[in-house]
Fold this sequence. Notes:
alpha+beta; Serum Albumin, Chain A, Domain 1; seven-stranded antiparallel sheet; globular
Amino acid sequence: MRYKKQAMIVAPQPEPTEAGADVLREGGNAVDAGIACALVQGVVDPLMCGIAGFGSCGIYMPGKKFHGYIDAHAPAPLGARPDMWANLIESEARDGYGFILKGRVNDIGYKSVCAPANLKMYYEAHKEHGKLPWSRIVEPAIAWAEGGWTVRPHVHYWWSDDGAFGRAPNHERITFTKAARDLYCRADGTPKRVGERVVNRDYGQTLRAIAIGGAEVFYTGEIAAAIAEDMKKNEALLTAEDLKSWRPVRNQPLWGDYRGYKVSTNQPPGGGVMLLEMLNILENFDLSSMEHGSAQYLRVVSEAMKRATIDKDAHVGDPRFVKVPVEKLISKAYAKEMAGEIQAGAMAKVPRFNSGAVSKDTTHISVLDKDGNCFSMTHSLGMPSGVITPGLGFMYNGCMGVFDPRPGRAGSIAPGKARFSSVVPSIIFKDGKPHLIIGAPGATQIAMGVLHVVLNALDFDMTMVEAVSAPRFSATSDTIDISNRIQGRVERELQGMGYPVVRSPYGFGFAAVHAIRIHEDGLDGGADPGHDGVVIAV
């Protein structure tokens, strides 16, 4: 439906979305609302995101003539070495989301932690572009931490996840430290169930300190001291110097165009280059003439996904360490070559070192305010480390798990280097004005999920609810993964073409896209039904 309103916020959790809506009602702008929402997300979805995670946010403010990104891709600790885990490799995740190592040292525990990046991104975005006082922005998160929140269905599902292919199951992550067990588990050690309460007074105190002292209390002050002490005690790679030296990166948008729409997205090591490459390839096909969800449609889109994945694996990393051939990867001529291969029936091969698991420990926020300011932010813990420092209440990222432990590659480990992330918060323009504010959680599947919804909205003219709800699929390996709502006949046709197909038991998945579409006569929002999110128009 279209809302006759001037502002809107959409996110995967109801409590943060309402917190952001309240900020909009009080006269806060899109940045205020987005950061307030993000801080509450860290409380009520603590394995998905938080102040010790990483992310990327796109900000468009026409009144200030500002359009840019603040990127917080958590870098490897300064004590990391390119070859330190080269002899521990067991396999690569089938979807390309990291490596399985002996002892899971990169996946769970203190050595998996990269520099916490999110809080400084939140703080500086608000300092530079917000309207309301910082203390007001932090206030809702404090209230939810100290007053408690109720475990929702998706939270319980994710906490109970058993893992696969060597990945640490999430129930091990919430029991890894006593602080995590005390917060998120019942007396018998199992995850708290739907409807049970979580009260996190330690996190409330941490947030109170941040509300008064800003980000510096976390990076150089009393919280930094507690973090550094805990890390040293447990032989982590992370040190006080990593905290002190971390700075968010300012970037101009990465631009592309698709069927007359202008697409602004994030720079490497974010996933924007993948999104633009896939759109460029698919622009060579008349998708709207195909049956949506048919085998033909799945084949064409999957081949575009595979080719972008191959290029990502080979070329995309931290541009401070790796020369990323962005111009080539997003060029129309290069896309036309690849489209020609697909039209000729060629099947791309995605190299993988064994097989692995899919992750989606991430979340997203899309916001539009009454002045036309847009905010799109995707933030995450990666694979959460399971580590909570006693007395602080928040979990750290586990971003070391996604680095390539093989030296000499785009995604290899290096001190201070950020790894590729599929996060792709984007704003799409029509006739010079914002038309679609979009992003998603979903690890390696993020760019794929966002691609789906962009195609659904622009090629098939779906409403946002229809666009985020339509059955999705993904091809980040030689296999095409399909949701359980895709028809069996389509699966059989793809298999007949020679494609391995894996059917998910879930009807939703392959990212969880949340988007706002701006029409001349109103706003249209979509919250992915695979999560617990909502759309609120103000």
